[in-house]
Amino acid sequence: MKHYDVIVVGAGPAGLGAAIEAGRQGAKVLLLDENDRPGGQLFKQIHKFFGSREHYAGTRGFAIGRQLLQEAEEAGVEIHLGRRVWGIFPDGSVTAANDTESVRYQGSYLILATGASENALAFPGCTLPGVMTAGAAQTFANVHHVLPGQNIVMVGSGNVGLIVTYQLLQAGANVKAILEAAPKLSGYAVHAGKVRRAGVPVLLSHTVTRAMGDGSLEAVEIAQVDEHFAPIPGTEQVIPCDTLCLAVGLTPRVELADVSGCDLVWSGPLGGKLPRHNRHMESSRSNILVAGDLAGIEEASTALDEGRLAGTRAAYRLGLLDVGTYEGRRAEIQGRLDRLRQGPFGEKRRRAKEEVWKA
């Protein structure tokens, strides 16, 4: 059984950030991911990031992914793809399997960056072909260069719904409407402005009530909702379409953290159940750190810096950094995270994070 100083599970922004930081300090790092390419959501993101230079402002997501992969290779990170981690054991070892074998690895520290899964809605016809999550549609269009459909209805006006809507428009689809159950948009104004200028109607206080079709999606029935989000009888209307995309939130993927014995807490603003952790990204298990969407749903830039924070902490606990160097690097990363958590959206998440740290 091969031994590593740090084993990172998940090669998205958080996992890459953690692996790079630990590797740069001299740690022997293994990065595991169940997919056949690292980078996570970054390679689906063709829009330009905004913020600061440290957060790759003006750079498209897939280009950031390529840069991070290069940095990981330069830091000496060993990357094993196509391996799904299915077991974490008290001695610090993990077991991962591909299509032909299962391999066990030993690690002094484990960083879980397992990301999140998309939420779904249940309604009559929700299993019809053509009904999918927004992330699935984004994968079709941006990764495989195949339109999921020609006439699309989007449910959800958060950043995912707005960004994927615009990207589907860029790919040549006709997005007929965005439905939002709340009485106001939930995503950033900059993203909402793009889709509105493109002529996509945004129907506030509306939801989908039924999907219709013979063998595949042909139309959706929608309705206005009251203050309790219940459909109002008599407000129904039908929109012909061949694709319905659901962008109704994300949930941290806590399965591995749970089986490893990490304490879980609940935070609605951060997506639900997540591992309890401190400001250093340390979980309740002394040798396990967490980062990214697993530690609470935020933005890709936040996930990257949380990963960097976890990787730096692991390197410090391994004795690869003295306390002064560690505190300087930690303060630098934490300062960027604090800036990302400003504004009406970030402030809510910052307060939620503080509650998790106190738990």
CATH topology of the largest domain, by name, is FAD/NAD(P)-binding domain
- Extract low-pLDDT stretches: none
**Overall pLDDT level:** 91
Task: Report Rg.
Answer: 21 Å
**Apparent shape:** globular
**CATH architecture call of the largest domain:** 3-Layer(bba) Sandwich
Structural class: alpha/beta
* Number of strand segments: 19
Please write the string of helix (H) and strand (E) elements. Answer: EHEHEEEEEEHEHEHEEEEEEHEEEHHH
Largest sheet: 7 strands, mixed
Count of alpha and pi helical runs: 9
For this structure, what is the CATH class of the largest domain? Alpha Beta
What percentage of amino acids are in beta strands?
25-35%
Quickly count the domains.
2
Domain FAD/NAD(P)-binding: 4-307
Keywords: Oxidoreductase
Organism: Pseudoflavonifractor gallinarum
InterPro entries: FAD/NAD-bd_sf (IPR036188), FAD/NAD-binding_dom (IPR023753), Metab_Enz_Cyan_OpOx_G3PDH (IPR051691)
Give the helices and strands, then pairings.
Elements lengths: L1 E8 L3 H12 L4 E4 L28 H14 L3 E3 L3 E5 L4 E5 L4 E11 L3 E3 L12 E3 H10 L7 E5 L3 H12 L3 E7 L8 H9 L4 E3 L1 E7 L6 E6 L12 E4 L2 E4 L3 E3 L2 H5 L4 E4 L4 E4 L12 E3 L9 H18 L5 H18 L2 H16 L1
Parallel strand pairs: 1-2, 1-6, 2-3, 6-19, 8-15, 9-10, 9-15, 10-11
Antiparallel strand pairs: 4-5, 5-6, 7-16, 12-13, 13-14, 17-18
Helix pairs in contact: 1-2, 1-7, 3-4, 4-5, 7-8
